[in-house]
Design goal:
Pfam families: RNA_pol_Rpb6. With about 110 residues, the protein is mainly α. It contains five helices and no strands. The chain starts with a helix and ends in a 15-residue tail after the last helix.
């Protein structure tokens, strides 16, 4: 197994685990409502990660209009690799949901009832 593969497995091993659908359903009383909450949180996490990565990579950007050859920047490559090794936002959101770390509120006109 390659070094990179082992690093990916060790980083996500504590996050990736099979979830019981009944446990997910019991958090809100409705499986689809629970999944919707997780999906919305995963989207928030994904947007935050993209913005953070973009800001870090922007430091290395060259704003010239010439067609010069693009050279490799080792720091930029390492930053990109670090973000590639991060767990999937859906896994992070599911873990947060199961640990009651997500605040959500129900609309009075609940469409799920």
């Amino acid at each position: 197994m390659s070094k990179l593969r082992r690093q990916q497995n060790s980083n996500t091993a504590n996050v990736v685990e099979t979830q019981n659908l009944i446990d997910i359903k019991n958090k809100t009383g409705n499986l689809y409502e629970s999944i919707t909450i997780i999906a919305k949180r995963a989207n928030q996490i994904n947007i935050a990660i993209k913005e953070e990565l973009h800001n870090k990579l922007e430091e290395f950007a060259s704003h010239t209009d010439s067609l010069e050859e693009i050279h490799e920047n080792k720091e930029q490559i390492e930053i990109s690799r670090a973000y590639e090794r991060m767990p999937n936002p859906a896994l992070l959101a599911t873990a947060e949901f199961m640990e009651d770390k997500i605040y959500y509120r129900r609309n009075e006109d609940n469409l799920f009832d």
